[in-house]
Amino acid sequence: MSEIRKRVNLPASSSSSSTDQSTAVEVKEKEKSTKYFTKFVFLVIVVFLLVLLAVGVLCWHLLDKRTPPKPPHVLMLIADDLGWADVGWHSSDISTPTLTSLARSGVILKHFYSQPICTASRAALLTGRYPFKLGLQGSRPFLAGRIGSLPLSEELFPQLMQKKGYRTHMVGKWHLGFESKAYTPIHRGFHSFTGFYNGMQDYLTHTTSGLDTVMDVGGYDMRRDLWDAQGRSSMDNILWSLNGTHSNVIFNEEAIEIINAHNTHHTEDPLFLCMSYPNPHSPIQPPAEFQSNNPQMHNQARRDYANLVYALDNSVSKITSALKEHDMFDDTLVIFFSDNGGSLMTQDDAPTGSSNYPLKGDKAGLWEGGNRVPAFLSGKGIPKGQVMDTIAHVTDFYPTLANLLGLDVGVRTFDGMDLSKNFQMDNRAVQKKYFIYDIDPVYRQAAIRYENWKLIVGTPAVHQANGRYPPLEEADSTYSNPGLPMKEYVDAAFGLLNQYKAAGKMCQTVECFLGDDADQILLFDLSVDEFEFHNVADRHPDIVSQLTSILDREMEGMVEPVNLLQMPGEAAANPNNFNGAWMPWLP
């Protein structure tokens, strides 16, 4: 074999070499195939991941469209007759640790205004409209025993909250009428109501009588109204057994029970809890457990008042603790304000102990002390540690909540404006320019604030509380020049009512309001004179003209006042017809 190889000149290992070459080619082909396969797999994986991402984004988008974020719980805290100088964040001598902490952890409203009296403020809050457009103007709250309620034509914001899925509850004071069931809280947007229909009551006996009625009898007013599981309204549960239990205790326990029940039965639903406190409205009756507080206060009226305010603060502490216990507090928007300024005197002409100092006047007047009140927002969606220095009004809460909570207001128009961006301290927010304090054709008084200017037409305070009233000191038996004694005030009010009825028409212009007393116009520049010392109307006739024109335009929408304090009351409303309790008396 070796010879043959030599003769044909063939290499001895040609067969082995050919095999190696073939193997090398195969290896290269395999490497090439593997490389292409790897690229293919990589591209498939990339495409799969992109498709998966796109599907995920689409699903998230669709899910987000179907299930928007759950709106926050809302805790609304309304004080009754709380003075400007009666809260801790206004450097007061009164201790309000819980409210002060909430205020300073949110946005303090430095220029927030309610109406000058209870009924009007509550109407403005729930409708977003000026009371003079509802017939509820003037310093004449609803009195027990008379027909007169918040018109049923108004859809209140709790009704819209129910449509949004909120569980809505009110605890405390209603004061918007109850002549028939249709006007009561559970028929105006609340799933339950525990409290009293009238404007004031004894904190222990829960009776409403005296000047808060138009009758010569009083009646018991503590109840629990609700809708049962079958959707039936129950309004006959008069809480007779709570006679002797302080209102503060009743309302604390009710609020905590509402929160506990919500956490058990309605965890998927947002909660609206409106705590409409009677504190610190007269009679000044602090709970027994707080009567020894503030021993450093040597004026008894101021001390009792401070302890009644502290009882409110302590209640808020218990409610917020309950929310925290159920992990609800961090998802809660807290709103606090007073329904009007502090009231200086009780019906018996005794000092309440309240103070609006250094603001002028008190409840029921058009001075700042009757309308500019302590207020703040805190909690979910609200920045911390801020002070809002621009104006806000109680009518603004409805449109603001509608935006924040996604409520469907339809084509409804408001006198208030949406201040959600302002409350969130957004520097792009549009500032509110003006609001109306009140327009009352009976007392012929009106007032407007436009930016820094305030115009008052007519008598600012029928009860003539026209001073500035510092907190009472040890030697003070009462305030200096607190206005008319109650009997004279009532006589003055009825004198104006009789004149109004005799006139047979309602004035709807500033000129008509003034009549022959054209000099009764006051103008203040609140940017330099927020305590209303200097009337500058003569120096700024152009501003007077501008603001009276706005008042004239607003008066075009005014309706006849409903509450004209007619005496006596409706015979059918007499509590003696209902076993001694105040009850709806019409079908």
Topology:
Blueprint: H1 2-8, H2 14-66, E1 73-79, H3 97-104, E2 107-113, H4 118-127, H5 157-163, E3 167-173, E4 192-196, E5 207-208, E6 219-220, E7 223-227, E8 233-234, H6 247-265, E9 271-276, H7 300-325, E10 332-338, H8 368-371, E11 375-379, E12 386-393, H9 397-405, H10 420-423, E13 434-440, E14 445-450, E15 453-457, H11 486-503, H12 510-514, E16 521-525, H13 541-555
Parallel strand pairs: 1-9, 1-10, 2-12, 3-4, 3-9
Antiparallel strand pairs: 2-11, 4-7, 5-6, 7-8, 10-11, 13-14, 14-15, 15-16
Helix pairs in contact: 6-7
Can you describe this structure?
This protein has 587 residues and is α/β, with parallel strands linked by helices. The protein has 13 helices and 16 strands. Helix 6 runs parallel beside helix 7. It starts with a helix and ends in a 32-residue tail after the last helix.
